[in-house]
Structure formats: C-alpha cells, structure tokens
Description:
Strand order of the largest sheet: 7-6-5-8-9-11-10
Radius of gyration: 23 Å
Helix content: 40-55%
Number of strands: 11
Order of helices and strands: HHHHHHHHHHHEEEHEHEHEHEEHHEEHE
Oligomer: single chain
Distance between the termini: 74 Å
Amino acid sequence: MPPTVTDRVAPARRAAHAAVLRTLAHGAYTDRALRAEAAGLDARDRALAKQLAFGTVQRRLTLDWVIAALTPKRTHLEPRVRAALQLGLFQLLFLRGVADHAAVGEAVELAKPSAGHRLVNAVLRRAQREGVQLPADETPAGASVRHSHPEWLVRRWWDELGPSETRALLQADNEPAELALRINTLVGDRPPEGIAGRREGEAFVVDEAADLEGHPGFQAGAFLVQSRASQRVAELVAPRPGERVLDLCAAPGGKTTHLAALMGGEGEVVAVERHPGRARALRDVCRRMAAGNVTVVTADALQFDGGQAFDRVLLDPPCSGLGTLRSHPDLRWRATREAIPALTALQDRLLARARAALRPGGPEVLVYSVCTISRAEERLRGAQRWRTLPHRDGTDGFYIARDGRA
C-alpha cells in the first residue's frame, strides 16, 4: 500500500495545517481549532504544532505579501493550498531549528491532492534559494507588512506610543506568549511539581512545554493558567476577609477566584456573568479552585441589582483585547477600529453601574481593568493607574485603574 499524506507529514505539521486551514477558510478561532486538531499528540508535538499554527496565523499579512510577490498576478490559491504555502513560508522565513527540506517537502504534501502543490513547491524553493526582502518598518505601512499587523492598528499605536515603542511592540506581538500560572493559596502554596519555571509571588512562569491540564495539580485546583498582568488586577482590588466584593463581567474566572483566595475564603465575592454557558463554566472553575465564597449570578451587569452595596467592585468589561495578540493569533485580523467606539460606550455604562454598587462610607474601592492597548478604552482615570506592555513587561498588555478611599 502506498504511503498516505498522513504517513508523509509529521503530526505537529498536520495538526498545525488543519488549524490554519480552519482559521483561514471557516473563521475558526485558532486556539480552539488547534486544541481539537492536536488532541492526542504528546506535549512536545503539541508545543510545535502551537508554534507553527500561531506563528503562521500571526504572520498572515507578511506571508501573503510574500506569496503575492513570488506568484504570477491573479493566481488563485485554494484555501488548503494557501494554508500549506503560508505554513511552509513561516518555517523558512521565521522559524529557527527547522530543516528547510522538511518545511518544503511536508508543505507540498499538505497541499495535495490539489494540483496547486506544484506551485507550493516552486514558491518555497524560490524563497529558499533567493530569500525575501521585506519592507522597512520606518513608516506605518511598511511596519504593517514587516510585522504583520493591520495598518489601522499600527497607525493608532504609532500616534499613541511613538514609532520606536510601536516597532518594539509589533515585534513582541509575534513572539510566543509567556505561560504563567497562579498558585492557588486556597489549596496550597507550592509550585507544581515536575514543571520547570520561576516563581514571582503567587505567579509561576513556566519555562518549557508542559501538559498542564494533565497535571495532578490542575484538577486539584492547585493552580490556574493566568498571565502575570491579569494576576495584578485582583491584587489591586486588595479585598479583605469578610468583605463583600462584586466582580462584574466575571467569566472565565481567573480574577474571580483570585479575589476569593486573597480573602482567604472569608466574606463573599458576587460574580456576575450574563452568558449562561460561561456562567456554568465559571461555577466549575470556582469549584475546582475551592473558591467556596463565590456566588455566581447569571445576569446582565447593566441590570444587576445586588440587593445590598459592596465594599469593593472589580469591573473587567468587554474590550478590544489588543494586549493579548500573542495568545490569540487571529484576534488582530478580527479586531476593527469601528468596534472601539461601541466598546467605549458600553464601558462607560458599566462603569456607572459599578460605581452605583459601592457602599457609601466603606472602602469604596473601584478597579477597572481591560486587556488592551488602546487609549480610547482607558475609561477610568483613577487616582492610581498602571499599564503593562508585552515588549516592556513580558506579559499581556493591560490597563488597570483604581479609585477608592482604602
């Protein structure tokens, strides 16, 4: 029996190609598509598949620019062929430690049975032989192509951060995101055994690929995957045992369960989530993390009535998410400038609701947090403000503001 494509292509490349194709042709979220396609792979192959799929989707604009430069005008590429060509080019141009012959040969196999596999072979071998000269990043247009970000976003950051800062941010956005865990003090205070990394307070930054969901500590609630920037939010709320704390727009639960842990399980955290499915998942996270002092309420945050006022309120409203482009590779292609005004209007309405929930005469602490790099969405100009940037802080881009008496 002749070998099949499955036999001729490494499992990691096969999974990555399938995830890229689902993103390209069907609008799938790359992380979710990859989770399904890489199920059953060992930790090392899953890590490579993630590197390939995330990198290819992130670099899509650059890769398509190269494809247009190396193919005849008006060439039509089937989605399967384009995905294989993008994957091969990503390896040749941006990934160290990968043999060129494997990158080329397996990309050709992935394009089959389409006749377009011959074009894949020709373009990759030409890129391998001649190299590629990308535009300089001295202008927003050039930086957009070179670093593969939408030009509207590059121009926004160019104006808000300046050219040098923007170039550094664009470059960092194409690097793998840090993998950070939060150690759950409601269960214990030890880093997960058998996983290499470094500890920073309650955070543990993982150094290498690891099967986290298969780790005994995961099901035991000993840790949760959560960026260091996200962990800072609950710390700035600084809840005390016995207080009543409101967490608006609470799912998926990292900040909610961190609030509970900082309170030592004493007092009450009311976590509001409007989507029933996300609310169910939030309850599951709270159970796993032993956050017994959390009450999950399925309700619209704009309509929520907590009955009695709260000592502290955390508002983590819907935002553009532009600080998380490393861990959500397709987000840069989904985000639009037109969506931001609608988001800011919603953020303002939610802020008014959050303020109204505070107990007069209490600590009256209000913390506003968005995982974005967008000055327009910095809606609370609190007495204390923090920004994190991926290229500067090595973690997600966040804006966090705090107001209050305490």
